Structures are given as structure tokens and as C-alpha cells.
Amino acid sequence: xxxxxxxxxxxxxxxxxxSTLVTGIWLAAxxxxxxxxxxxMLFGYIVVVPIVAMLFGDDEEGTxxxxxxxxxxxxxxxxxxxxxxxxxLRERYARGEITEEQFERKVERLLETETLEDVEDQKRRAEKxxxxxxxxxxxx
Length: 140
Description:
Layout lengths: L5 H7 L1 H18 L5 H20 L3 H4 L1 H31 L4 H13 L3 H15 L10
Helix pairs in contact: 2-3, 5-6
């Protein structure tokens, strides 16, 4: 969280503030029986909010801040997991627990694995190879 003051935070969040104000005003007008609520809502969301977003909205770097942060976290977690797994493999190979062929095969498999879905796909393929007992029904 930044140490910006209230004015700076308001400026950074002006689009959200204006959107909330537009919503509050048209809802108040609607519930109090004002006839202009629909026109205000349309004008507010079609004209006012986009203008404020253009003037004070996020620049392109910050537009997908949460998405970028999530991707960065996921990729750094994946790198850390890969690094830890490689280190474990190296230690096992150094202690003689696995052969050079096993080590190379496991490293190759580890480097091919990019996502959780890839791991699940590999697991399913391995299970199919081990358990060919399920036969497909024959159609005539």
C-alpha cells in the first residue's frame, strides 16, 4: 500500500468515485420518483464516467495491475518450485539415489512442465499407459 495522502488516493481512484456518485444519484432519483433518473444514468455512464476515466484513469501500465501482479506471483512461484525440484534432483543424483539416466529424464520432464494442467495431463497419460484394462466398447 502506498503512503499517499487522501487527496492523492482520491485522484488515483477518481473514476471509481465518480461511478459511485453517478450510481448513488440516479438511484436516489429513481427511489424518490424523479422522472429524470434514466436520462441522468445514461448521461453519467455514457459521458461523465468515460471522460473522467480518460482524464484521470489509470495509464496503460496500471490498467491490469491486479492481473500483472497475479501473473508475476504465479511465475515466481513456479520458478521457485522448479528451482527447488532441480536442487532436490541434484542432491539425489549426488547421493547416488538415482542414476544419470533417471536424473536426465526427470530434469527433462520437470522443465517441460509449465502449469498444473500440464502435470495433470501427464499424470492421466501415465495412468492410461499403466492401466490399459479399460477397453472401449466395440460398435458394429
